[in-house]
Give the backbone structure.
Amino acid sequence: MAWTWRYHGADGAPVEAGDVPAETFTSRGDAESWLGETWSELAEEGVGTVTLLEEDREVYTMPLTGDED
């Protein structure tokens, strides 16, 4: 099975594939570890939320940054 991330900007629009890494992982743990190491770089590129995919099935969506008061 392939695990991948889908990226969305702060406005919810998809982020173009050429603007962010298109990584594929063999396990959920590998995908989540990679995100843990690169989330701040993705956020700097304009990614606001990510969705973890197992093949074509959405597993979960989460924000990369919290709202600051």
